[in-house]
From TrEMBL:
Protein name: GntR family transcriptional regulator
Presence of keyword Transmembrane: no
Start and end residues of each HTH gntR-type domain: 1-53
Presence of the UniProt keyword Transcription regulation in the record: yes
SMART domains named among the record's database cross-references: FCD
Gene3D superfamilies reported in the protein's UniProt record: GntR ligand-binding domain-like (1.20.120.530), Winged helix-like DNA-binding domain superfamily/Winged helix DNA-binding domain (1.10.10.10)
Amino acid sequence: MSGKYESGRILTLDAVSAEHGVSRSVAREAVRVLESMGMVASRRRVGITVQPAESWNVFDPVVIRWRLEVGDRKAQLVSLSELRVGFEPAAAALAARRASPHQCRVMAAAVSDMMVHGRSGDLAAYLLADRLFHQTLLEASGNEMFRALNGVVAELLTGRTHHGMMPEKPNITAIALHDEVARAIRMGEHEQAERGMRAIIEESASAIVEEVPPTTTSPKTTTSLKTTTSPKTTTSPKSPAAEEH
């Protein structure tokens, strides 16, 4: 991704190990991880071939994170927002039909936390509440395919915050829309839940288009062999059992 290794370049495990000052076993594990992301292809008697961007697993949360760090950030965020339009409104509509009382309480509590942290400007705490809201909504849809896309949404929300694309205090309109969706799901109003989620995404996308400056690094069909340990699955923070009102 950084442009150090051009698409089509062939490397050897020994060369990778020597260049990065790591053991062959560490280099082999790094190649294995990158291969699982579609970023390199490894074959006996051929070597390690750097793959073009078209081959990357763009749904992998780590790939999303790296692209936000070194690629055309604005284009990546717009692309992710367009993807969200395709599934989150439908997930919200399903959640209005299938959400459990506990899931409804978790979403309501997440919105309350967003309000509190939004007023105080605690973006880190706001992000946790925002991620919990969307994770719970996707789980409440009862569709395992939608649930599997939680990593995509989480990386979008996280990247927007970590790269300074959020205002000092989150938009009160965005918080109100989350509250509207939570209420619609609790009341079983699937059409309202779908409309509200679409409005959330459109509000977020418009802020990206207006506020994100272009990055200096242009997207390239290149990759880097630098990798990190894949993130472990963590348990979402438990939300207080907020009373419905």
